[in-house]
Amino acid sequence: MRLHINDVAVRDGFQMEKSFVPTATKISLIDELSRTGLARIEVTSFVSAKAVPAMADANEVLAGITRVPGVVYVALVPNLRGVQNAAAAAKRPDELNGVVSASETHNRANINRTHEQSLAELPAMVRAAHEAGMRLTMSLSTTFGCPFEGRVEEAVVLRFVEAFRAAGVDGISLADTTGMANPRQVEELTAHVLDRFPTKDDTYYTLHFHNTRGMGLANVIAGIEAGVRSFDGSVAGLGGCPFAPGATGNICTEDMVNMLADMGYDTGVDLDRLIAAARRVPGIVGHDTPGQVAKSGKSLALHPLPASLQAGA
Ligand code: ZN
Q: How far away, in angstroms, is 128 Cα from ligand 1 center?
């Protein structure tokens, strides 16, 4: 079974770092990730440089990367102005990812809008993106729980999916922004979404998990069981959310790919190359990172025999 793996570290991860990651470093990491077989790479966002200084170099990053055919380069946009700024870039992203939170409180904290304001602007965002030759997908943050409001009603999630589709978006990401999802909930909720709003496009629905409570990879399996084929991760497990208390990293891309490869899934990703990229990340951010496979090696990375078992010993 073919799965599609996306990496969001350069956006979701670097925006959480206290020190600014130099533009050239971002570009070289993106270029390295581009050669691993990932389906999509989220490379930057078009947001207010005052609110998110880490992404102030969006234009430079997009202009500086070497694009590999077949890889979709994505930028996050919080609103119509973000779409317009992306359209004005010398080198546009292939795809924009808009964001709205299923929880109204988180939506206001994250993008300072009510649900009504977010949805009212969506058709104009889709139009502006398409006119500039870019796809537009929508992420539904806090799909599986909100740190301020708790569980989100399934009916609310379904209403958003319906509204996104009515607006003509090119894909939908269900995001567990603060790591509150559990596998049973993921399987049930995503199965209901796919049931009500089926698609033949394997990359239309994406699941985006954070590993805040250690359930991230289990949630991926639950998502596969429910029929989802596209998953976000973050190389080295970087990430978080500046507007959600205690939100730690995304699930780690190379840990996910290692697990899926072991289980016999085709991810299209060269795990050795991905691990090599992940091993650069602690040096870039100046601290240890949560990913495990970059430290342990992949499951079948065999070790030399202990001296006592070696011939002649
Ligand atoms: Zn995230």
A: 25
For residue 174, how far is its CA from the centre of ligand 1 (angstroms)? 10
Surface-to-core class of residue 116, CB atoms within 10 Å of its CB (0-12 exposed, 13-18 middle, 19+ buried): exposed
Does residue 245 carry a pLDDT above 60? no
CA-CA distance, 195 to 157, in Å (whole number)?
Answer: 13
Q: Does residue 241 have an active-site annotation? A: yes
Tell me how far the alpha carbon of residue 178 lies from the centroid of ligand 1, in angstroms: 8
CA of 209 to the centre of ligand 1 (A): 7
CATH number for the domain spanning 219: value is 3.20.20.70
Q: At 131, give phi and psi (nearest 5°).
A: -60, -30
Domain boundaries, position 104: 4-309
Local structure of residue 309 (DSSP, 8 states): G
Query: Total structural domains in the chain?
Result: 1
pLDDT tens by residue, 11-53: 988 888 888 999 999 999 999 999 999 999 999 999 988 888 8
| From 18-27, 78-87, 243-252, the region with the lowest mean pLDDT | 243-252
Does the pTM exceed 0.90? yes
Query: Which of the following is catalytic: 75, 174, 241, 294?
Result: 241
